[in-house]
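User: Fold this, then the next.

Assistant: Folding the first:
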Amino acid sequence: QNTKSGSVSFGAVSGGATHEKTITFASSITTTDWIPSVTLRGARGSIDRLTASLFDFTATQMKVVMKNITPAAATGANYIDWILVKKGE
């Protein structure tokens, strides 16, 4: 009850490009009560090229943008692990 979490996959991200992914929650939340966090997971050679940042957080979803910080493509099966933790817990 005090955490909500999940994983979502995304594909390749070209060198220097950005890619946006929207994560939709199973039920609505009150954003002032929850702290969001995201982590990248996948092949090391691919994930080492990427950064992920949260750029929108609403009662029903959060949006994450992945940025490829190298000229090489990040390929393969990549995932965002996300978690919401209830404040004060």
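Now the next one, as you asked:
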Amino acid sequence: MKSFVFNFISGDKKKFGNGAELFNLIATCVAFDQKVTIVLNENEDNMNFLLNVLQIPGEKEIVTYQKTSFGEISNYEGFRIKKLSEIKILIEQSDFYLEC
């Protein structure tokens, strides 16, 4: 299984419009039995557009290094708060990395 990491380093959600592009990208990854990790870097509660992504069956997690609430996303069992050093390791060990 390969590991795909999508890092919302820019915080520019306009790149994904209504989320359809990201949804399709992640759905394709998990359809081929790949692990997907989404890194959130901002402290806004308006990341709830990712809730549709969480409905996709497959191995995925959402991580952040900030101790903030991300609304309904923080209730998702795959949501984790990790140390920045742990996230850097995730990125270094990934097979595919994309800054969003």
